[in-house]
Design a protein that fits this description.
Number of domains: 1
Largest sheet: 7 strands, antiparallel
Helix content: 10-25%
Number of helices: 1
Strand content: 35-45%
Shape: elongated
Distance between the termini: 68 Å
Radius of gyration: 22 Å
Length: 204
């Protein structure tokens, strides 16, 4: 009987410790799990891509999805413009990736550039989410009276492979809030230092 009580006490302490870890360090645990696996929500071929901005920062628009280039992680400094042969391109880390020839002049005026993927290119945008959500019992919003009860990370991954070989991968990470009665909100909540554009890889 004594052995059973000791085992039960250890089990209760383990559950309490695990619950405390989930509540107070859930976000960090979720980030760690995300390094190995995330869950796909949707995937779509990119039919059009555009940029609005001054070359540094701004917004990249894949189909109708607006992805911010402002405040990327400190090791990234992507820039967007045109190449010598008038192609819409992105530069990062000393490498350049050309999306394609600019479309009609009417779409490329002021601070806007646009193109459509050549039929031979493989271009897609994939949306994924964390495997583990974490509870937020201590989040309070005194302005609106509504506070999220759960949070999770959501990822937007742009893949682009040219028929000639070059590849581009871009990855954005945001937080998504769950409100009782309303469900999951827009997946573009930011947290300073950990959200926004977190990876740009260009392979020749």
């Amino acid at each position: 009987m004594r052995r059973i009580l000791i085992t039960l006490a250890i089990l209760i302490l383990f559950v309490i410790g695990l619950s405390a870890l989930w509540i107070f360090r859930g976000r960090q645990v979720s980030l760690f799990i995300d390094r190995f696996r995330t869950i796909e929500i949707s995937s779509a071929r990119i039919s059009a891509i555009a940029y609005e901005g001054s070359g540094s920062g701004g917004v990249l628009i894949a189909n109708d999805l607006k992805l911010s280039l402002n405040h990327p992680t400190p090791n990234l400094s992507p820039s967007i413009g045109t190449t010598k042969d008038n192609q819409f391109a992105l530069a990062s880390g000393g490498k350049v990736f050309a999306f394609g020839p600019l479309t009609s002049a009417g779409e490329n005026t002021g601070d806007r550039l646009a193109t459509a993927p050549p039929a031979s290119d493989g271009a897609s945008i994939v949306v994924r989410r964390s495997v583990l959500n974490w509870p937020t019992p201590f989040d309070f919003n005194f302005m609106t009276g509504q506070s999220p009860s759960w949070k999770r990370h959501i990822y937007y991954q742009l893949h682009w492979k040219k028929s000639s070989g070059p590849k581009l991968e871009m990855l954005w990470r945001y937080e998504q809030y769950f409100y009782p009665g309303n469900g999951w909100a827009s997946g573009f909540m930011t947290r300073e230092g950990s959200t926004g554009l977190i990876r740009v890889e260009i392979q020749p």
